[in-house]
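<context>
A single protein, sequence plus fold
<sample>
Here is the protein in question:
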Amino acid sequence: MDRLSWYISMLVFTVFSGVLLVTFLALDWYSWKAIALAVGVGLIAARPIGRLISRKIKREDKLFNPPRVHPPLVPDPSAPEV
């Protein structure tokens, strides 16, 4: 799991929940069920959509070069700080 997908998932959750909540309120559905449904749909949709967007960004980025070697369990003490 990469960090970019988590950040995008948080944004997608906010957008989806907000749009659904505004839609429900515009349709005069004022109840806790409307809020719970908006939050639930946002939570369910956020992770897969965040991962798809993250993969698309990384696939189209020419400068992204993922490491092909698994890092060791103990870091190299002579390696530079990140």
